[in-house]
């Protein structure tokens, strides 16, 4: 199976990027997009040329490292599927792929298909943690929680932080990512103490670093974890709740 690739090459953050054309002559339908890049890089190295730089780790759809644009769409055409799990067999009749880094103002290109996604880390540092005083952490089963509430928290916690939602959004918004974190932690008893503070801090980073959300909804189908659009509404709810708490009222 012959596959033609147009791959974005960029030597560094300040270098001018360009597309370069390659051909993989022995691709198979079972190959994932990352395995296709592996095969291309094997050929480039054998020829003494620079391999394409891209990120990957677990290759099981869990780590969130393998994010890039495939024919203009984060991860590729299959909904709710990371690039490492998108195989050539799901592209019937497609023999040309344009691969480029995630395009978002908050994600500057480092090299080739690798971008700096530390802006998401800023959101986590702002409020994606739980404060527990040393020596006071309760046993896991000492704070009871309804099963349905725990399952709902786990659904939001499934976000893998790949950044596809930001790249898919025409405004470069991270509301889906932030909403998943706020919703997850608001449902956990151990994290309730910082709920208002967390919402204020994360909304500040959203305003400073990312674009506004206009509810296009492009983020949802590209999310490998299937985080629902409801997560975006939960950001506003948590911010309003934080304002009420600051005004001396709590719900």
Quickly list its features.
single chain, 251 residues, alpha+beta, five-stranded mixed β-sheet, two-stranded antiparallel ribbon, 8 helices, 7 strands, 35% helix, elongated
Low-confidence stretches: none
Structural class: alpha+beta
The tally of helices reads 8
Distance between the termini: 60 Å
The percent range for helix content is 25-40%
Describe the largest sheet: 5 strands, mixed
User: What would you report as the Rg, rounded to the nearest angstrom?
Assistant: 21 Å
Number of strands: 7
One letter per element, helices H and strands E, the order comes to EEHEEEEEHHHHHHH
| Shape category | elongated
Beta-strand fraction estimate:
5-15%
Mean pLDDT: 93
Q: Which strand order spans the largest sheet, edge to edge or round the barrel?
A: 2-1-5-3-4
Structure commentary:
This protein has 251 residues and is an alpha+beta fold. The protein is 35% helix and 11% strand. The strands form 2 sheets. It has a 5-stranded mixed beta sheet with strand order 2-1-5-3-4. The chain has a two-stranded antiparallel ribbon with strand order 6-7. Strand 6 and strand 7 (114-115) form a beta hairpin. Helix 2 runs antiparallel to helix 6, helix 5 (175-186) packs across helix 8 and helix 6 (195-209) packs across helix 8. The longest helix is centred in the last third of the chain and has 17 residues, at 230-246. It starts with a strand and ends in a 5-residue tail after the last helix.
């Amino acid at each position: 199976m012959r596959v033609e690739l147009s791959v974005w090459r960029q030597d560094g953050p300040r270098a001018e990027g360009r597309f370069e054309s390659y051909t993989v002559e022995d691709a198979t339908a079972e190959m994932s997009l990352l395995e296709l890049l592996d095969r291309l890089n094997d050929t480039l190295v054998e020829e003494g040329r620079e391999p394409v730089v891209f990120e990957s780790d677990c290759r099981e759809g869990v780590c969130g490292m393998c994010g890039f644009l495939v024919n203009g769409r984060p991860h590729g055409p299959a909904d709710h599927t990371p690039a490492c799990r998108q195989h050539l067999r799901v592209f019937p009749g497609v023999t040309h792929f344009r691969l480029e880094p995630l395009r978002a103002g908050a994600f500057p290109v480092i090299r080739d298909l690798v971008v700096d996604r530390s802006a998401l880390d800023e959101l986590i540092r702002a409020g994606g943690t739980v404060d527990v005083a040393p020596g006071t952490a309760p046993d896991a089963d000492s704070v009871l929680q309804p099963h349905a509430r725990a399952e709902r928290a786990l659904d939001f916690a499934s976000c893998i932080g790949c950044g596809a939602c930001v790249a898919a959004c025409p405004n470069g918004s991270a509301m889906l990512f932030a909403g998943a974190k706020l919703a997850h932690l608001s449902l956990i008893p151990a994290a309730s103490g910082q709920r208002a503070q967390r919402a204020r801090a994360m909304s500040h980073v959203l305003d400073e670093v990312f674009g506004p959300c206009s509810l296009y909804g492009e983020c949802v189908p590209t999310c490998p974890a299937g985080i629902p659009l409801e997560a975006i509404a939960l950001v506003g709810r948590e911010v309003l709740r934080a304002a009420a708490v600051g005004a001396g009222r709590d719900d």
